[in-house]
Each structure stands twice: as structure tokens, then as C-alpha cells.
Amino acid sequence: MEYEIGPEESVSTAVVRAVSAVEGREPCFLRPLADVVDPTALDSLFDPRYGGTPRTGGRLSFIYNNCCITIDNGEYLTLQLLEDRFSDERDQEHSDSRVR
Predict the structure, then answer these.
(1) What is the pTM of this model?
(2) Residue 62: which domain range?
(3) In 3D, which of 91, 95, 50, 41 has the Cα closest to residue 71?
(4) Nearest to 86, CA basis, from 68, 60, 61, 71
(5) What are the tens digits of pLDDT across the range 6-42?
(6) Which of 25, 41, 70, 93 could form a disulfide with 61 if both were Cys (CB 3.0 to 4.6 A apart)?
């Protein structure tokens, strides 16, 4: 799943909303994001620099609630369920072994 982070939305809020949508559960029933990463620090990584200059580049990935989360430039979030990710990796390894 890809999620575009809104201009007034914090990165930490976007993570919780995206995971909630994928898992079909209300955010209050998810494991607290703070158990995995400091939400304030996460937001700070992608906040504009002093004087309002936007930060460019940057990518962060981490695991939260059985999902692999990747944040690009503080604008986009990609979410993949761990079971899907491992299945994709196994399929790739299997196809690589057939090519050799």
C-alpha cells in the first residue's frame, strides 16, 4: 500500500492511519507507535529545517504491527505486510535458483 502524507499531517500520524487502514482496525487497538519508535523523533526527521526550508531526500524503514513501513522524503509512505514481504522474497529466491 502506498500512502501520500498530507501537508498538515505528521509522519507519525500517517504511519498509524496507514497501518490502521491495512489491518482494518481502529488506531486505538493498535500497538502504540511509541513502543517501536519515538513519534516526536520520527516527525522531527522529516520536519522542515530552521527557517522553513524543506528537507529533501531521506528514507527510513522500520517494522510496526507486522508491517514494514518505509517513509520517503516525509511525503510518501509505503507499507507492506510482513507475510507478503517474506513471500515475495521467497518467490524471488526460488526464481533466482532456477535461472542459475
Answers:
(1) 0.79
(2) 2-99
(3) 41
(4) 68
(5) 888 999 999 999 999 999 999 999 999 999 999 999 9
(6) 70
